[in-house]
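== Folding task for one protein ==

=== Format: two labelled lines per protein ===

==== Paired sequence and structure tokens ====
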Amino acid sequence: MPITDVLLALLVQVLWGMNFVAAKVGVDSLPPLVFTGLRFLIAAALVLPFFPVPRGRALLGVLALSFTFGTLHFGVQFMALSHVDAASAAVLLQTGPPFSTLLGVIIFKETIGWRRIVGLILAFSGVVLIAGEPNLGATGPVLMLLLAAFAWAVSNVIVKMTQGIPPLAVTGWLCLFAIPQVAALSWVLEEGQWEAIRAAPIEAWLGVTYTAVFASLVAHSLWYVLLRRHPIGVVAPWGLVAPIIGIAAGIFILGEAATWQKLVGGAITLAGVAIVQIRMARRGRPVVGTASPETTRDPCQTMVDAPSPNHDARPEGAAPDMLVLHYTGMPDEATALARLRDPDAKVSAHYLVDEDGRILRLVPEDRRAWHAGVSSWRGGGDINSRSIGVEIVNPGHEFGYRPFPDAQMAAVVSLCRDVIDRHGIRPGNVVAHADIAPTRKEDPGELFDWPRLADAGIGPWPHHGESHAPAPTEAEALAALAAIGYDLTETRAAVVAFQRRYRPTRFDGVMDAETARLAVAVRQTIRTAEATASRPHG
């Protein structure tokens, strides 16, 4: 990570760490649920003018998040913060990753190793020690903070329903939908709200503004930038710096007591969280199989053989003329690799690209891997018999979809460039799994960097015509989609798949003017590229 990104990561942690102080100052003057509602109001007002209302399943996801992440996580957190010191809250809220691990075991039947079990034991042992700290008084606030951390973990599961919506839009709309919830709770549980608002000092208003703008919108946006640039294993451990800053700020700025229970319990909890979080980020990274460097068109690239038994012979005369890109859609690389090599799973791909850029070769290219399923492209089926399949490690929409790190994208570009050059794959036959199976699949998804591939000569990317030119009719646009290769049996699903790839900011399945122009532009781009590629030279 370059020094600029190190400083950026530190800035994010400072913003998040100081959030505990800002919130503590705010809830000391304002009822905590009023404070929560004001935070949501400011965040929603700043964000929502730029984003449309989500629809369908995404709307249900945002509504669910408004309760779990808005009301439960933030509302309960600020209610507890009015009774405990900022330093203790900074530590107790870090139990979110351990709760996520437990949810993975319970809901997704994920297996965990002994290191993460030790991490869980340490994390919650530290919580027990902090709960006995004399200055905390009753254990009720401690339990409330643990509930807030648990709500954060649940929200990480629910967020998969908000696929296709920019993170800031999710934040803005969940804040808006949470406002009536916390207002109703405030009406039931609190009193003197208007008097508190009128009498609140400037420090309280600065606290509200800080939590809404800097700790939420600014910090999360910068964190998202880091996730786009680097593997999760590099970025995630930085999250452990925020509670340390929160503890220090509580002690040195707010004058909170530094008792031995708080310090020792905090150290134990953070050590346990560190083990859990780093193992979550890096699990599955050890070299698998026999390391056999293979020089490709990129001499710096090496592959690791990790053979899968899940393949059979290609039909006689069938040669790869398609490249299909997938994401793994599983919690981590180890789980995905285990499934791709499990004989009972009956799924595989030719290659697996990890987040750090490591490439695993699972199936020889002359064999038929089992990755495409029931699918169709350009009128043909049995895609497995005529394609090379590449699985790209990403949790996917089900387990916390996130951007593809730069190192991973560089490896994907290098691998794909080599594959299409060796097999002579045409630009129009470089496809997403969602393109060939639009009613079943959505990978590699809207965060995948297709323009980067196109810049390297891999697959098409449209050159827009004049925006004021008349839009093609719906019939013309659908004809363009069919010519590109989409199966229009389920028209809306095909349009969604096309939009997810070529207009990733909005994929609602509506054949609007922009989508129609894009469809015609992509068709023309493919025709031009393939005509150029097939033109005789000499």
In short: Residues 202-229 form the longest helix (28 residues). Strands lie at 290-291, 303-305, 311-313, 322-327, 351-353, 359-361, 367-369, 387-392, 430-432. DSSP finds 21 helices and nine strands in the chain. The two ends are 47 Å apart (CA to CA).
